[in-house]
Amino acid sequence: MTPTIQSITDILSFLTVLADILAVFLFVILTTSLRDKGWGKRVGMFFGKYAVLFSFIVSIGGVIGSLFYSEFAHFRPCELCVLERGFLYTIAVIFVVAMIERKEEHVRQYGNFVRNCTLILSVAGLLVSAYHSWLQFGGGSVVPCSATGVSCAFVYFIEYGYVTIPMMAVTAFALVILFMTFHRKNSGI
């Protein structure tokens, strides 16, 4: 790995660790009584109000990161990487459109569609990327990996003892799920 690629990997890995801490924090608020009172309620309302913006930032960051690794670092994606990208890129397109079309009539008409569609895609992407991570950390293959191309168990790098490219995807999908879960129905885009 070149020094530039290593430096960017270090930055992205550190951001992944910070995002994981945020995800655990939000999950605790979401699953406990903190969600309904005091500062926990205020945190939930804040992330609910800006859920689309934060999800947009996470999904665009994931798209840029995946393109960096394939186009600049020349890491060849495996079949599971391609599936994860399909989910992530679709989510990013939905959020780009949602950010552009924030008119009141569009918010009323499509707000729940954006929320529900991105939640479904994020759950599917999370399942694929979690399985991919499981393979990389030594788990047995449930579905055989293609004999052509890069093995799904191949690890390009590992930082902080757990951050790999599929773990970055797990984090991105988990954050989108959490943000959109805080996003209230009919609260707009």
Structure in a nutshell:
The chain has helices at residues 3-31, 38-49, 51-72, 79-100, 104-136, 165-182. The protein is mainly α.
Summarize the topology:
Elements: H1 3-31, H2 38-49, H3 51-72, H4 79-100, H5 104-136, H6 165-182
Helix pairs in contact: 1-6, 2-6, 3-4, 3-6, 4-5, 5-6
What does it look like?
It contains six helices and no strands. It has 189 residues and is mostly helical. The chain has one domain (3-182). Helix 2 (38-49) crosses helix 6 and helix 3 packs antiparallel against helix 6 (165-182). The longest helix is centred in the middle third of the chain and has 33 residues, at 104-136. The mean pLDDT is 88.
Biggest β-sheet: count, sense, barrel? none
Strands, count:
0
**Which ranges are low-confidence, i.e. pLDDT below 50, for 5 or more consecutive residues?**
none
Supply Rg.
17 Å
Distance between the termini: 41 Å
Overall form: globular
The whole-number mean of residue pLDDT values reads: 88
The total of helices stands at 6
Total tally of structural domains: 1
Overall helicity: over 70%
β-strand amount: under 5%
User: Order of helices and strands, N to C?
Assistant: HHHHHH
Give the class from helix and strand content and strand pairing.
mainly alpha
Core attributes:
189 residues; mainly alpha; 6 helices; 72% helix; globular
